[in-house]
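For consistency, the fold was encoded as tokens, which produced the following:
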Amino acid sequence: MDADTCRHNSSGKCYAGAGSGFAHQPGQFARCCPANQWLVVAGGLARMWRPPSRHIAHYLYTEKRLAQPVRENEYRTAFCVVAIAIAIVYWDVLRSLGLAWYTDDNYSHGFFIAPLAAYFAWERRAEFTARPIKPSAFGLIVVAGSLVLLVGGILGAELFISRVSFLGVLTGTILFLYGWQRLRVLMFPLAFMLLMIPIPAIIFNQIAFPLQLLASNVGEYTISSLDIPILREGNVLILANAQLEVAEACSGIRSLVSLFTLGLVFGYFVDKRAWVRVVIALSSVPVAILANGLRVASAGVAAHNFGRAGAEGLFHEFSGWVVFVLAFLMMFGLQRLLQRFVPENLPPRVSNPDTVSI
């Protein structure tokens, strides 16, 4: 049928003639008449320019997913650059800190603090990257305040302030680049690094002397309970054939700081409950005092039986290690008691349906 015989009804529908029953074959509708050709072209353009919303959403999701690692890498690079700058600024402070660890036996455990803190931070890497990046301008205030502390510590020859400012700058940098949520993830490793900084001498002396008196009291009570005559004057123990002085080095502050650090690490690895970790860490204080008192008492017993020479030399050094191991065993026993009487609520085990219980 050609275009001359094509007709349209009132609704615009094409037909071949009244009652002819003609139906267009595929491809013939466009050739029927010029109006039909325009309809075909308009329909094709409409299909061509129809917004593919599903494809656009998929494209945007893919772009966002691919942009996240790129953003992480950018912030990681920025943090590495800032960390190098911090290391350059604090080089003299960090060098003096390492020298203090090497020369002062009270803080020789500082060599282990930084690697452990790095491990604690690495262990939280999945949680750290899962938190959103929301930089906070307050981090710049923390960095600026910490740098002021650094200048004040250098001018005032106060090593403690300048060393603490290093942790302040590190904390402020993380806050400025990543935000509060990611900083909370790293709060424990950052706080743990405080243990590597020697406390000021004025505070050290205020703690050491009471510990000397406590160790003397425990030693006197233990020795007298063994029916050995003893007289105590302050931190001096007077025996029948020897006189022992509980010096500052024997006050127990060295074992106290070391045991507190050990208690934190031990509690962190053996139990996931925060209150158990706190109890184990705080138990190191009475355990250290008791253990050091027993050390003083053992030195008094040795001096009573072998003279003053029996409490010095190899026995004095070896007894320190023995007492430290004994203190750790006390904390280990406390942890086992807590585990036995207050067990950790573990998720129930799912049994295999093919396994038969007998």
Remarks:
- The chain has a mean pLDDT of 77.
- The chain has three domains: 3-49, 68-196, 201-341.
- Residues 68-196 form one domain.
- Strands lie at 7-8, 14-15, 231-233, 236-238, 243-245.
